[in-house]
Amino acid sequence: MSDVEDACGPESVGKVPLRIAAIFVILVTSLVGTMFPILSKRVGALRRIVPGGVFDFAKFFGSGVILATGLIHLLEPSTDALGEGNTRSAGGCISDAWAEYPYPFGLCLLSLFGTFVVQIVCFRLGTERMQKMTGGVPPHIHVAGHGGHVDVPPPSSPQDVESSPTTVSSHDLEKKHDLSRSSSELEAGSYRDAMEENPVAASLIGVLTLEFGVVLHSVLIGLTLSTTSDDEVTTLFIVIVFHQMFEGLGLGTRLAFLKLDHLGKKYALLPWFGALLYSSCTPIGMAIGLGLREGISMSSGTASVVSGVLDATSSGILLYTATVELIAHEFIFNKFYHTCSWTRLWFSIGCFALGAGIMALLGKWA
């Protein structure tokens, strides 16, 4: 029993200079990954220099990273932390009661469903709020048709609709919209995102959900890196540098396409704040871990339970975001990919698969 207690108790960690340097390296690389899409979208000089294909690659590559993060870097570690192999009877640090039910998968399911409920409730409340902020008129009407969307200026009154000679159906407007797009626009498609066709409330809520999931995960990563054993810290540090930068690409592209300028300067700064928040969370987690390094061990029973529960919760959030917000919204319900060339479609899918594949491969070491 004493051997188990020793293995699960606090332990001293070395290579403190490396761990301190990692704080600044990860901060810089995370900022580069997250800020690149925002700067490329919002700074005119960079927008002209950076090819649209590069931006699209970063967008879909980062989306694939988010999907793999939810499965490989969150759900799998959660099963290790809360699984039968980590129970006291098996020589681990947690109670045997955790082995009586697949808690990581149950928590992931609960988190995924909870994210859906929170999003639909917040969407309704957010839509009402946006209408009040824009003078009682929604910024644009969401008209679904064949998987696409079209912005229709709302009429001022029912009488105007009846009397206006230019009033046409949403189907006619959508048809006109499609005809006006040239084939060159379909093939170039630079700096374009399905999120731009969403109501402001839907886009904002989707990004905030993604931000919450990656921020929670980033803090845990920082704690783990600052308290992991000396034998593993170098490899884990290298993996986390790429992990955070790639994940930042996925988040940064969603922040870049938020259209909040008409809500005031306070909201216009939200993408920049989101990028800074994400980039600083892993360094903050590392700083906390280093400050408590003599009294905390990520192999202890309490730390295993906490990290396992939070990993499973974050996994549900990111899996919902990756499948609903990124895959379904960006591909299945995005009319652009119903009409563009097969080359463009497979390029986007390939970038998505590459991001997911590389992040899944990094799971071999972290």
From TrEMBL:
TM stretches of this protein: 20-40, 52-75, 103-123, 200-223, 235-257, 269-292, 312-333, 345-363
Cellular compartments per GO CC: plasma membrane
Annotated Basic and acidic residues bias: 171-180
Pfam families recorded: Zip
Main location: membrane
Subcellular location: Membrane
Residues covered by region (Disordered): 144-183
Swiss-Prot/TrEMBL keywords: Ion transport, Membrane, Transmembrane, Transmembrane helix, Transport
Molecular function GO terms recorded: zinc ion transmembrane transporter activity
Recorded topology in the membrane: Multi-pass membrane protein
NCBIfam families: zip (TIGR00820)
UniProt similarity note: Belongs to the ZIP transporter (TC 2.A.5) family.
UniProt protein name: Uncharacterized protein
